[in-house]
Amino acid sequence: MSSFAGVVVDQWLHSQFTQVELRSLKSKFVSVKNQNGKVTGEDLPPLMAKLKAFREFTEEEIRGILGELNSDLSEEIDFEAFLRAYLNLQSRTTTKSDGSKNSSSFLKATTTTLLHTISQSEKALYVAHINSYLGDDPFLSQYLPLDPATNDLFDLAKDGVLLCKLINVAVPGTIDERAINTKRVINLWERNENHTLCLNSAKAIGCTVVNIGTQDLVEGRPHLLLGLISQIIKIQLLADLNLKKTPQLVDLVDESSDVEELMSLPPDKVLLKWMNFHLQKAGYKKPVTNFSSDLKSGEAYAYLLNVLAPEHCNPSTLDTKDPQERAKLILDHAERMECKRYLSPNDIVEGSPNLNLAFVAQIFHQRSGLSTDSKKISYAEMMTEDIQTSREERCFRLWINSLGIATYVNNVFEDVRNGWVLLEVLDKVSPGSVIWKQASKPPIKMPFKKVENCNQVIRIGKQMKFSLVNLGGNDFVQGNKKLILAFLWQLMRFHMLQLLKNLRYHSQGKEVKDADILNWANNKVKSTGRSSHIDSFKDKSLSNGIFLLQLLSAVEARVVNWNLVTKGESDDEKRLNATYIISVARKLGCSIFLLPEDIMEVNQKMLLSLTASIMYWSLQKAVEEAESAPSPAYTSSSSTITDASPAPSINGEDEISSLCGEVSNFSIDDAASDTSSLVENDTASVVD
Fold first, then answer.
1. Helices (H), 546-603
2. HEC-encoded secondary structure of 496-562
3. How far apart are CA 318 and CA 301, in angstroms?
């Protein structure tokens, strides 16, 4: 396991950046220093102009701003001076853009390094939620209930157990709790493992964690912790707001053609649609379009509760002119409905979006007021995808969102139809491949513009040697599910193989193939003296999980507790092993999105992605260990050691350095693996 000490800077600068950002900026600073022998003010404009954060500035504008700070740009500067210049320029960026930021989803949360505002009301909500749902947990009960008036939440979160348990409350079964280090006193390695498991599992349920590193969680940084906890709790509260979990939501649409539109909406928009559905029935004339300003007066709440629970109605709620008094009566009404009281009257009057969303979600769970018409419910159930399609859609959706692109994907089949999301993903995995001048950004009203976007996607896919015979952009626009899944698998596979290719300095540009991954896995297990061997990624012996656990143990001996491993003979034993494998891999540092069923059923695509992720971690670990040795060109008292999981850069892209480490010269044997032919077969069957 690699060390995880952070980049050391003075206390104020330390409070302004996450460790992920510090590591990324430090690597850029060191790169310039190694190249030139020193860093001066003259080196900063071309360096900063390349950073995503400063794209709206030209190099000359940056030079002018830096010149205001220091008239002599020829002087040598240290890393802390570089950070101060970065912050100054960042503040100019905020001013230039008026601080405006758009987000299409409640989950697309950004992390600011300048404004670390903590909402005490939100903190109190999260503490109350944790006390309520985890109060009986065998391990955490000794520390609960937490007092929202103290910093107990941040202190308890530092060992990672609380966050892992909270993720399991939000999406049960995400983490195999046998993989969590739950001793009363844990060492630094175990704490880092818990946080690595937490972050990779958070990604696997749909959280955006691009700018959060394990060191930030170890330090208990309040704004980052609350941001992550907020996302986890929202995922839990909105988990049932889809037709699969709540087919009664079909009541919200009149025509069958509207059902697909309902399925494409993010959960917070479905919640608003549900609220407006009942408000319209109650005679409320103003549509509610957000969880903030539209709810400040309390009138919408009063109408909603009166129509859902008229037996608890208080006539004076609408008669009172005082918003604070009305808000108090609303909360009294909700309490009589047995809704959890997570917010105060003042939170309603101030229009707190997170607290209002949580409150409306509580009302929905307590009393949705939807029909129990069996015909409608049966129709809604028919509209949902088959199990395999749904699982693949989930995997690709989570993978796309983990890349840190600007658009948050809620439903792959709907969100890719205009081509824009696919272009964003292509630009992320193959920078410079997209001609943005020829692309149309949503909202796109003209259908031919969507086709143009998708045609560019197809063109880039062909340049990347994807199998796209007889496929056109219109197939994506029409939402052909099989074609979309086939394309996304090739895109995800390309991304995995490119990461591995970049790590293999011995390859001299040679393409990495599926067979390389297979051979690496077999050789790795063999090197530990074990006799296990697989012929391909659809080898039926993989279903019991033993080979995969041996592979994980081979790359990091201490990560697998063999006392917890079963023989994998029955389905129950196979499931236990499969859930343990996924959690151990995430604990190690692998970013993976498969389910236990994918291992049990030997889904060769998902098993290839899992093995590739383990291989990437193993090779990256060797690279980090080699690079951690002091460089003769640069020595510093500041230590920069990365987490077990490779950190994204300040641009949101992977930093792949000059490479060395544990790499074998693999023989290329296409017969050993047939996932490549699987792609062609999938596509061909659709075309036929």
1. 546-555, 571-588, 596-600
2. HHHHHHHHCHHHCCCCCCHHHHHHHHHHHHHCCCCCCCCCCCCCHHHHHCHHHHHHHHHHCHHHCCH
3. 10
Closest CA to 493 of 407, 377, 605, 415: 605
CA distance 532 to 526: 7
What are the pLDDT digits (tens) for 157-202?
A: 999 999 999 999 999 999 999 999 998 889 999 999 999 999 999 9
H or E element that contains 492 = helix 481-503
- C-alpha to C-alpha distance for 134 and 143, rounded to whole angstroms: 10
In this structure, are residues 443 and 407 in contact, taking their beta carbons and an 8 Å threshold?
no
pTM (2 d.p.)? 0.78
Of the candidates 563, 566, 561, the residue with the CA atom closest to the CA atom of residue 578:
566
For residue 337, the SS3 value is: coil
Both tokens assigned to 459: 């063109």
Beta-carbon contacts of residue 324 (< 8 Å; ≥ 6 apart): 345, 346, 349
Name every residue whose Cβ is closer than 8 Å to that of residue 681 and which is 6 or more positions away in sequence.
Answer: none
Count of other CB atoms within 10 angstroms of residue 68: 9
CA distance 351 to 302: 15
Do residues 122 and 352 make contact, with C-beta atoms less than 8 angstroms apart? yes
CB 200 within 8 A of CB 228: no
Beta-bridge partners for 248: none
Lowest-pLDDT choice from 14-23, 239-248, 593-602: 14-23
In angstroms, rounded to a whole number, what is the distance separating the alpha carbons of residues 76 and 85?
A: 13
Render pLDDT for 425-481 as a digit per residue (tens, 0 to 9): 999 999 999 999 999 999 998 999 999 999 999 999 999 999 998 889 999 999 999
DSSP track, 617-675: HHHHHHHHHHHTSPBTTB--SS-----SSPPB-TTSSB---S--SS---PPP-GGG--H
The two tokens of residue 26 are: 């430090």
How many other CB atoms are found less than 10 A from the CB of residue 639?
Answer: 12
Name the DSSP class of 42.
G
Model confidence over 152-168: pLDDT tens digits?
999 999 999 999 999 99
Backbone angles phi, psi at 40, to 5 degrees: -115, 170
Q: Which residue has the tokens 């690279």?
A: 623
Q: Residue type for 222, please?
A: P
Residue type at 450? K
